[in-house]
Amino acid sequence: MLRSLHIRNYVLIDSLDVSFPEGLVIITGQTGAGKSILLGAMSLLMGAKADASVISEGADSCVVEAEFDIPEASPVREILAAADMDCGPGGLLIRRVVNASGRSRSFVNDEPVQVGLLSELSAQLIDIHSQHSSLLLTNKAFQLSVLDYFAGNTDRLEACRASWKELQDVRARLREVSGRLEQLSSEQSYNEARFRKLDEAKLREGELEELEEEQVRLANSAQITEALSSAAALLEPSDDQMISPSAAAKEASRMLEKIAAFLPDAAQLAQRLDSARIELDDIASDISTLALRSDASPQRLEQVEDRMALLYDLLRQYGCGTVGELIAKRDELASLLYDSTALVEEKAALEAAEKKAAAELDRCADALHQARAAAAPGLSESIQASVRSLELEKAVFKVSLTPATLGPSGYDGVSFAFSATGSVLQDVSKCASGGEISRIMLCLKALMAKFTSMPTLIFDEIDTGVSGSAADKMGSMICAMGANMQVFAITHLPQVAAKGDAHYLVTKEDSGMAAGRVSSRITKLNAEDRVKEIARMLSGSSITPAAIANARELLGLS
Length: 558
What we know:
Among the domains are: 1-125 and 455-524, P-loop containing nucleotide triphosphate hydrolases (Rossmann fold, 3-Layer(aba) Sandwich), CATH 3.40.50.300; 185-338, no CATH class; 526-558, no CATH class. Helix content is 55%, strand content 18%. The chain has helices at residues 35-45, 75-82, 115-122, 140-151, 154-200, 207-219, 221-235, 245-258, 264-293, 298-317, 323-388, 428-431, 434-452, 468-482, 494-497, 527-539, 545-554; strands spanning 2-10, 13-19, 24-28, 61-68, 92-99, 104-108, 111-113, 126-129, 396-407, 410-419, 426-427, 456-460, 486-490, 502-510, 518-524. It has a 6-stranded antiparallel sheet. Strands 8-12-13-3-14-15 form a 6-stranded mixed sheet. A 3-stranded antiparallel sheet has the order 9-10-11. α5 (154-200) runs antiparallel to α11 (323-388), α8 runs antiparallel to α9 (264-293) and α11 (323-388) crosses α13 (434-452). The mean pLDDT is 83.
């Protein structure tokens, strides 16, 4: 329930701090005193859009704050737990701050939150029936929700909505897979040809670089052979009159060794010559080997150049810079061809899942339909009895199911038919007057209050268009609702106001802050002030002794 409300600088409210009790709370005041402003402030806490126009003149920001008592079994605790927040032993504190730029900040138990969380929480805390809410009576979704509350369809509705969502998810994925398959199918032959060309090329990382090196060698084989032969001839001359560098070094080393006993440095020079001779022999051997490998082969050169031409052509065709990129492209095409097979299998699985989900949705919708069909006569009788108790003794109210397109709420629509005289039934939107709609809505709210466990219900002049004894009976009905929940009734009818457990008066007075500026305030009335307020409601601005007596009688004080 709403424990207290604190408002700063909201429209005409400069400062307000008020606490509320359980039961039926009456709020009255003259037209224009600011009752609707209170509801506007409450709407901010419920996540309504904020703008700078709500800030009082001369203020930089406005603050609206409310404290709520939260039962242990309240869904509010589950919402807070899902947001990683704790309700705490002190209940729930919700605050909304609007600054001069029109931007707002929201807080729950002093922790900053998104405004969406306020909407989610308020849906479980307060139900406001404003003067325009009677239009809901003609709203088919609202009518269906009334029937579902009466039928106890909460779990069935959740199951149906879950089945609907699952079916939509499966169908969305099936459309995606089918579209992908169509695309792959149109590209299948093209992708297969491109993959086959790359696969048949037997690509190898680094191959092109090796081929380029070999091609250079083969293309210049004559020059290479000539150079190697000349070098070999110099190191190992074939002319018997010429001595090779190796033999010369060997002979020089032998001569130096002879004088080593007389000249120690000669031994070192001999060793160096031996090392040079060994190195020369190795070089000569390597030159001979290179000469043997460098034999020109026109056939091999042709093979190398053909292979290079193939690789260059593939690089150009596939827009690649290296053979490694060609290999990656080949693997990508292979993956696409494999994906086609995998997607075919997934499509078959999704089609089976679609049939299963559709069957489950049909089952859930059938269960909803049967429950609604069984509950509709009882709801008709219950609402009809309540409406007749409000001095519409001949009224007839009938709830009927109508076919609708299958959706998250099943395949049922609903029709509320009404006749105030018991004659021909018509849709409630076409035959009910303002006073009749107010009475029907009160009956529906009273009924739904039994099923929704809403801790606080606010009626904003639900008694519009009703007077006399009918108003008294509406007050009794509202009072009965206040026995099990906190109910606020903003009213202009003394018969309703007299039923409350507590009575608050909204007034407008000089703010004392600027010339001509007024502000609204709310005051809890004591017993004597309450008599005067109800007398004013009975007689107008001039309170007569008869009105005082009538007020005391209404309050049960006479």
